[in-house]
Every structure is written in structure tokens, then in C-alpha cells.
Design goal:
Largest sheet: none
Oligomer: single chain
Shape: elongated
Strand content: under 5%
Radius of gyration: 18 Å
Distance between the termini: 33 Å
Number of helices: 7
Order of helices and strands: HHHHHHH
Helix content: 55-70%
Length: 152
């Protein structure tokens, strides 16, 4: 039975930090990453905000570095460590060589969260005594949507 017990949440703060650090160290890695990740795929809210701004800069052809990202998000990230926090993201990164691999893992974790949330919705439909047609319709939608996400 599903209750209020804690669930495993498929996420990796460390990989999210690694991706952001890699981009700040070597912005050219966005050439590979931008086609794999969207901001919503980050579990950590602050990292969604940072990646969203980096993505905007990338699309606009603007410089991506700690200073420009910090200046653009100063109001949002000062309460979370500001420029020091951004700098700490780069501290453990020597290069972006594994950035694409890490991006693929983050996308997989996002899809797992998507499936988990969809499964909970299906569970609620069953608990609410919906018809089998409604339950299977939602199950089919979940399968189609998650397959499309996986295909990229």
C-alpha cells in the first residue's frame, strides 16, 4: 500500500553539479549537452534555474562563464552562495570529457521520475475506482510519453 512513507527519488545532485561545472569550465560542451537536457530534467530547483540561463546564453550565442551566469542570476543565487557556489561547481571538474555521458544519466533519472509520478497517478485512478479503460488509457499515455522522452 502506498502511504506517506518516503520514496526513493531517482536523482543525482552530484551529476547535476558535474554537468553545470563542466559547462562553466568548457562552454563548448553545450554543443553535445543542449540536445540531451532541458532545464526541467534537473531535480534541484536552483540547478534548473542555472541551466535554464546557461541554455538561454547558448542559444543567443552569449558568453557562458561564472561571471556572466552570476550577473544574470545574482538575485536568485546570492541566497544560495552566489559566485562562490558557482565557482564550487567547477572545483571538481578537470574537463568536460564525460559531460555527455553525465547528461544522458540525468535524462534517464528524469524519465524515471516521470514514470514514477505517472505510476502514482495511475495508482490514484485505480484507488478512485475508475474504469479499466481509463486506467489503461493513462497507462498507454505514460508508456508513449516516457518512450518519446527516452528517444530524445
Amino acid at each position: 500500500m502506498i502511504g506517506t512513507e518516503q520514496f526513493y527519488i531517482p536523482e543525482s545532485k552530484e551529476l547535476e553539479e558535474s554537468i553545470l561545472g563542466a559547462i562553466l569550465v568548457e562552454p563548448d560542451c553545450m554543443d553535445d549537452i543542449s540536445s540531451i537536457l532541458t532545464p526541467d530534467m534537473f531535480h534541484t530547483t536552483l540547478y534548473k534555474v542555472i541551466y535554464n540561463k546557461i541554455s538561454e546564453f547558448y542559444v543567443q550565442g552569449l558568453t557562458i562563464d561564472i561571471f556572466t551566469v552570476y550577473q544574470a542570476l545574482k538575485d536568485r543565487i546570492d541566497e544560495n552562495g552566489g559566485a562562490v557556489m558557482l565557482s564550487s561547481l567547477t572545483a571538481k571538474i578537470a574537463s568536460s570529457i564525460r559531460a555527455k555521458e553525465h547528461a544522458l544519466i540525468i535524462r534517464e533519472l528524469y524519465i524515471l521520475r516521470y514514470v514514477m509520478n505517472g505510476s502514482l497517478k495511475i495508482y490514484d485512478l485505480i484507488r478512485s475506482k475508475n474504469t479499466l479503460d481509463i486506467v489503461f488509457s493513462e497507462l498507454n499515455k505514460l508508456h508513449t510519453d516516457s518512450t518519446n522522452l527516452l528517444a530524445g
